[in-house]
Design brief:
Strand order of the largest sheet: 4-3-7-8-9-10
Low-confidence stretches: none
Shape: globular
Number of strands: 10
Bound molecules: guanosine-5'-monophosphate
Number of domains: 1
Distance between the termini: 9 Å
Strand content: 25-35%
Structural class: alpha/beta
Radius of gyration: 16 Å
Largest sheet: 6 strands, mixed
Number of helices: 5
CATH topology: Rossmann fold
CATH architecture: 3-Layer(aba) Sandwich
Length: 190
């Protein structure tokens, strides 16, 4: 997706050969026009997948997920990282090791929002080792729902997450595929 590649080239900051900072348009400040284009693109790519719900993780997945849900006309659920006093029922949950924070946390969704007739599209900001995606897939399966596919804004293809999801047979669409971050330069798989 050319507009996203351009934005990453112009405003992304390579923090190391493993980590890309995109807080100018995705992870802190949000570019709504770009988010709308991202939502339109995911909606086009998954138009024939029978999606009934979108699932993401708070906070950075919410913006692209909502724009995709708007275009597809389906609800968006974000897995919560913190237990809320208002979430009192038995939750669907999974542990996820955070690549950027290097800590393990639990993410949870209320079973009221997912059921066995749902076909769920997972949306996330980054795909690195795939821990966040695998946690969401686990929650979707606990609900008895099926996975329609995964839409990733930025995939770091040099890490293992994409290969694992491909091996599991999931339909994965990444709008930017980063081949390397070596020497402070972002190189894409075109
Ligand atoms: P994974 O679970 O696939 O290992 O990592 C994906 C999650 O870690 C994403 O939800 C994202 O929040 C975070 N993440 C992974 N790599 C990066 C990165 O290079 N930059 C930023 N900003 N977040 C990342």
């Amino acid at each position: 997706m050319e507009a996203l590649h351009k934005k990453i080239r112009e405003e992304g900051i390579v923090l190391s050969d493993q980590v890309l900072k995109v807080d100018a348009f995705l992870n802190h400040q949000i570019d709504p026009v770009l988010m709308q284009q991202i939502g339109d693109e995911f909606a086009r790519l998954f138009a024939d997948s029978g999606v009934t719900k979108i699932v993401t993780i708070e906070a950075s997945g919410i913006a692209p997920a909502v724009m995709t849900g708007l275009k597809l006309g389906v609800p968006v659920i974000f897995a919560r990282k913190h237990q809320s006093l208002t979430l009192t029922e038995n939750l669907l949950s999974a542990t996820v090791y955070s690549f950027t924070k290097q800590t393990e946390s639990t993410v949870a969704i209320s079973p009221r929002h997912l059921n066995s007739s749902d076909r769920v599209l997972v949306i996330d900001d980054f795909l690195a080792n795939g821990k966040a995606s695998q946690a969401l897939i686990s929650i979707i399966k606990q609900a008895g729902a099926s996975v329609a596919g995964l839409g990733i804004v930025i995939e770091k293809s040099f890490q293992g997450g994409r290969a694992e999801l491909d091996a599991q047979g999931y339909h994965v669409e990444s709008l930017a595929r980063v081949k390397s971050l070596t020497d402070g330069v972002v190189t894409f798989i075109e």
